[in-house]
Amino acid sequence: MAERQRGLFSLLKYAPIYDTVQRIMNANDVREKFARDFICAAPGDKVLDIGCGPAHLLAHMPRVDYIGWEPNSKYIEQARKDYGERGTFNVGYFGAEEASQLKNIDIAVISAVLHHMSDSEAQELFRLLRKVLSPNGRIVTLDNVFVADQNPIARFLISMDRGRHVRSPDGYLALARSHFDKVSGTTVHSRFPPYTYYFMTIRF
């Protein structure tokens, strides 16, 4: 995955520093909205969280059967400390071997991940998720986005993101539609700090 990793960006691999930046960006409110309006998990749902980070989304969900995958071991260490009994937290990338061990996922969450992935990487992830979703399952995604007439501060902040594959709404939709028929997206503008988010809901 392509991302900035040098200089100050390298500090974000540490969970406390990552959490501090997230607080500055008002990320907790964004997570709450994502969980409430898009994830919409019910108690007992089987939830797969790709790139779960420290798993802070769990604070906004009911008791679910949660499986998180995250390549940063420091984030997983924090997730296990904060939410240990509420889920299974795995260090590594979610690939074909990992997908082969899962089935009947009700909700697959991809939060702030697609803008770190090339088109081919993202399409491979969607291909794997087709295999693990239940027939009535769905995928929900959240990423930053470039849109027309965007607040210039929002555009600048997004351009400084570690991820090097921030797309337009059409760009994100095209990735999902390469493997799924029912795809819808919503753009949300945050006033403070100025930022722009794109949410997708994806079904068979």
Describe the structure.
The protein has 204 residues and is an alpha/beta fold. It contains 7 helices and 7 strands; from the N terminus they run ααββαβαβαβααββ. A 7-stranded mixed sheet has the order 3-2-1-4-5-7-6, with helices on both faces. Strand 6 and strand 7 form a beta hairpin. The radius of gyration is 16 Å and the shape is globular. It starts with 14 loop residues before the first helix and ends with a strand.
Strand and helix map with partners:
Blueprint: H1 15-24, H2 27-39, E1 46-50, E2 65-70, H3 73-83, E3 87-91, H4 96-99, E4 105-111, H5 119-132, E5 133-144, H6 152-159, H7 169-177, E6 182-190, E7 195-203
Parallel strand pairs: 1-2, 1-4, 2-3, 4-5
Antiparallel strand pairs: 5-7, 6-7
What's a concise summary of this model?
The protein is an alpha/beta fold and 204 residues long.
Please supply descriptive tags for the structure shown above.
204 residues, alpha/beta, seven-stranded mixed β-sheet, 7 helices, 26% strand
